[in-house]
Amino acid sequence: MRIIHTLDEMTETARGWLAGGSVGFVPTMGYLHKGHVSLVEAACEECEISVVSIFVNPLQFSTRDEFEHYPRDLTRDIQLLRTAQVDVVFVPREEDFYPPDFSTHVAPSGPLSERLEGMNNRAYMRGMATATTKLLQLVRPDVAYFGQKDIQQFTVVRRLVRDLNIDVHLRSMPTVRESDGLALGSRNHRLLPNERKAASALYRALLHGKSLIEGGEMNPAVVEQTMAALVSAEPSISLSYVAVCDPDTFEPLQQIAPKTMLAIATSIGGIRMNDNIVWLGDDHWLM
Questions:
Q1: By Cβ atoms counted within 10 A, which residue in 32, 73, 89, 286 is the most buried?
Q2: DSSP label at 189?
Q3: Is the pLDDT of residue 19 over 80?
């Protein structure tokens, strides 16, 4: 396994990809878990060359303090990726990725970036889009892998790739969950025991919304209100939003129909947590 730290070395390495076959890329912010591993396994299985980036992107955080407290364990991450037989791990340094005179950002606009996670945090969308664009240009993968839990990030990047003519295919992979349904996330370990127990309400709310739809409820407001009430019953949870919307545009729906997303976001102990499931029709769900 090759570990690359400098942008120049990553660029030179990427120039030689054509001779080695297809390249699968998994962008991460480190502190890897089984959800990341599922993406890595897909990249290793489907492509000849697998690349994983580990970069805690400061532009995605509201404050420097929040950035500094993001969990990190590079030694553990490297060992995990070595076990998974990843070919290249790209760990750029912040001072190289964003030099002191850095002044060019990718700023998505329109409903895709302004709804849900973008309602109150446009800086996150700009930071995510800027870092992702740079990584795609540096690594030059054939396929990039994302988890469904971050469906809005995936959708914004899909539009970004289309609009900027970046030659990469994007793959969205199923959410990996803990035994009680909580979506795996790098910040989950920071929850106190009572907060961790309360966090399972996110998935319970999604399942309750699912059962309402399967029972014939087609009014989005009823589903949203019921889900919100279930989550709000947990005193340690601060609800940010519950949405029943189109999974491609995030537009609110007048009536539930096949291809409907149920999304939820909360703050628990100051930790941002979000989750979603998508109804494709009949008994088919992306969960």
A1: 32
A2: G
A3: no
Task: Report the side by side order of strands in the sheet with 284-286.
Answer: 237-245, 260-268, 271-281, 284-286
- In the CATH scheme, what architecture does the domain 2-173 have? 3-Layer(aba) Sandwich (3.40)
Please pick, among 36, 69, 105, 189, the residue that the annotation labels catalytic: 36
Q: Where does the chain hold its CATH 3.40.50.620 domain(s)?
A: 2-173
On whether the CB atoms of residues 41 and 50 are closer than 8 A, the answer is no
Q: What are 151-205's pLDDT values in tens digits?
A: 999 999 999 999 999 999 999 999 999 999 999 999 898 999 999 999 999 999 9
Mean residue pLDDT of the chain comes to 95
Within the chain, which residue ranges are assigned CATH 3.30.1300.10?
188-282
Active site residue 5: no
- Structure-block tokens of residue 198: 């309360």
Check if CATH label 3.30.1300.10 holds for domain 188-282. yes
- Structure token pair of residue 117: 């996670």
User: Residue 135 has which token pair?
Assistant: 């990584």
The candidate with the shortest Cα–Cα distance to 270, out of 30, 45, 66, 104, is 66
**Each residue's pLDDT tens digit, 218-271:** 999 999 999 999 999 999 999 999 999 999 999 999 999 999 999 999 999 989
